[in-house]
Amino acid sequence: MAILVDENTRLLVQGMTGRAGTFYTDQAMRYGTNCVAGVRPGRGGTSHLGLPVFHNCAEAVKETKANASLVTVPAPKAADAMIEAIEAEIEVVVCITERVPQHDMRRVKDALKSSNTVLIGPNSQGILTPGQCKIGVMPTVDAKPGHIGIASRSASLTSEVLASCSAANLGQSTTVGVGGDVLHGIGFVGCLERFRDDDDTKAVVLIGEMGGREEELAAEYLASVDYGKPVVGLVVGRHAPVGRRMGHAGTLSVFGNLSADEKTSLLRDAGVVIAKDASDVVRSVNSCLS
Question: Catalytic center at which residues (predicted)?
Fold first, then answer.
């Protein structure tokens, strides 16, 4: 089993005929993801990479039964693309686009409220269920099927932790990159809820950082429920200068008042096993499962 995507996922790619869309569609297809269509206004009725291209998501869903979308549309139009996918009732929408304006994301958040769509991103590395489905830019070379769920705010740390887990025979059920922007879709709590309900996920790894409130919300959630599965947490940025942007908008501490150490303390108090650094995640997971 897995969360959100699996071998039954039928993917369409918005902006597929562009440079990024072409590249990431090809990668997904090579991995084995079931890509069924592309969307590009004005290009409907054509084909690209052997797939039919439609004017909009509604047409694509009607003809192909697509239930997931990858948004590769440039930032000025990315919000419109996400909203189009939401209005087409697509179940999972992954947006890898960076620098989507925050006022545009307000419109996306409003659209999500009255829908059943799960949004991953924007500025996300995507989602990966090893051996079944890859949507986005998630690395696959080190991924292995298994029983560890991973939810992360950091793309680079995701790669490192995923590789070290696989090397230690700790395969993954699903890995989710929640996105590096302040305003985004699914967060740690949404991932935790789904991993809790997934019988095949035996433990969860949360990879957090300074800025934002994802770690605080996760701690509040875990403290309020009998989660039933071990959760390992890693919060990086302990030595980052206060108030300085570190990589992306989500790490800017003005958008979250707590330091990395304070977030770590909250998670520990909520029952999370804390890894000292990325190299300590495997030991922490194994200690929980032994």
Answer: 248
* pLDDT 10s digits, 100-142: 999 999 999 999 999 999 999 999 999 999 999 999 999 899 9
Collapsing DSSP to helix, strand or coil, 93 comes out as strand
Please name each of the domains of the chain with its CATH number.
11-120 (3.40.50.720), 139-289 (3.40.50.261)
How far is Cα 224 from Cα 66, in angstroms, rounded to an integer?
36
Would residue 248 show up in a list of annotated catalytic residues for this protein? yes
Task: Tell me how far apart the alpha carbons of residues 267 and 234 are, in angstroms, rounded to a whole number.
Answer: 9
Residues in Cβ contact with 257 at an 8 Å cutoff, skipping those fewer than 6 apart: none
Find, among 205, 224, 110, 118, the residue nearest to 162 by Cα.
Answer: 205
**pTM for this predicted structure:** 0.94
Cα dihedral across residues 31, 8, 159, 78: positive or negative: positive
Alpha helix stretches (DSSP H) within the chain: 19-31, 57-64, 75-87, 102-113, 155-167, 188-197, 214-224, 260-269, 281-289
Q: From the candidates 48, 147, 184, 248, give the one annotated as an active-site residue.
A: 248
| Contact status, residue 172 vs residue 162, Cβ threshold 8 Å | yes
Neighbours of 1 (CB within 10 A): 12
201: DSSP letter: -
Residue 60 CA neighbour count, 13 Å, CB half? 36
Residues 6+ apart with CB under 8 A from 101: 75, 76, 79
Q: pLDDT tens across 23-58, in order?
A: 999 999 999 999 999 999 999 999 999 999 999 999
- Alpha-carbon distance of 56 to 84, in angstroms, equals 8
Residue keyed to tokens 């035996």: 202
